[in-house]
């Protein structure tokens, strides 16, 4: 029997109406800012925090590339916070929190009530876990996920994508110190 346990465990997609800020986890893909653009335009989110310090062939960091996209589509620079030093998910969160503190100040950050996390589906649980560890406890989180190479319902048939999903589960185990899911040693499914 093939179960899609990892998809349901990793993909933290949730419905949401509005959020104070969107957190975009660093990535080379434009998909997250393509998702955030209409939310900024419709004012369902007030502000976006773009993270990611890895440089692409164009010389821009992930966050700078996302910022450029939003600015080219008419989003005001005042609505964009930029964290462009991080190289890992944990750094996205910690350095991103520092940017939020710089902008909002330590007293008004407690007024931040909701955050929309925009992340790859297979990465969303770990991003949320790390945000909940480092940001104020009063924040309500929502998650908007997107697909890249690892397609929902198909990743297990591609050895490279399967390895990425398995690696993500191992990273969550390392972060949380628990043993969560066991990949089935043979076949294409998970037990």
UniProtKB/TrEMBL annotation:
Residue ranges occupied by any DUF218 domain in the UniProt entry: 37-134
Cellular compartments per GO CC: plasma membrane
InterPro entries referenced in this protein's UniProt entry, alphabetically: Cell_Envelope_Assoc, DUF218, Rossmann-like_a/b/a_fold
One Pfam family here: DUF218
Official protein name in the record: DUF218 domain-containing protein
Protein species of origin: Deinococcus cellulosilyticus (strain DSM 18568 / NBRC 106333 / KACC 11606 / 5516J-15)
